[in-house]
Amino acid sequence: MRHFIAILLLISSSFAAEKTETESSFDAGADWLEFYYRNPTPQNFVPQMKAWAADGTLQNHEAHPALIGFTAQLMRQNRDKIVKWATDLNGLDPKDLVVFNTALVFSRTGEADQLIKMSLGDKYNDFERPPKILEIPLNEPPAMNMLWGYFYATGSENALRKIIQGFRYEDAPLAPDGVEIPEGYKPYYTELPQLAFDSLYQNLQKHPLVLETCENFYANDKSLLAMEKRNLYDLLALIKPKEYPPRKVTKSDSEKDLKPAPVR
Q: What is the mean pLDDT of the chain?
């Protein structure tokens, strides 16, 4: 349990190679998870986890980061239920408990810490905690989906602001000074602007709170960098073109990899 970020990175690196029949099973409880912040129902957590175990979702590695981010925040919101939840889920296959056990670590709660201490015994003193979810660097592949899980559990504008920081990698060099990059290799961080754009676009369409928060950021957040504000405007223009008339793309913009997500 020492290096959870490394474990999640390993999981994420296997996405392209590992495609199983469980890929679409995450849809079964998606509405409950994605809109949880609007109507918190912690009493449904254990039944939903068991349903996800039954349909294969908890062993779908692609779903892990969002589920971990979501579950960790539910634990923070319901500290008095963590021990009971652990007891109620104890009968699941160990592979189905990876999400819950990893979320214990990211929850940063005393109740979870006691369970971790009981599990590790003498090894507890060597236990190294990963960063808080909001502090995980975006260039670590699990981070973006963990942040969306965090948002679905809380409606947190801090999670959305962190996702918007993905646009800061728009001008990042393919090869930093002094670093040799193998021919044909494209660093993951170069994908972050498009990942941020696409995920925000999809969620802007489904979540009025995401739209409201992004509009507020655009109008009032003085910390926005130029590329963050420009891409926020392009997103809002896709959703509300009358209020945000699509801007004329300049030559410098057209040379960038970032493109608006297709309207569906």
A: 85
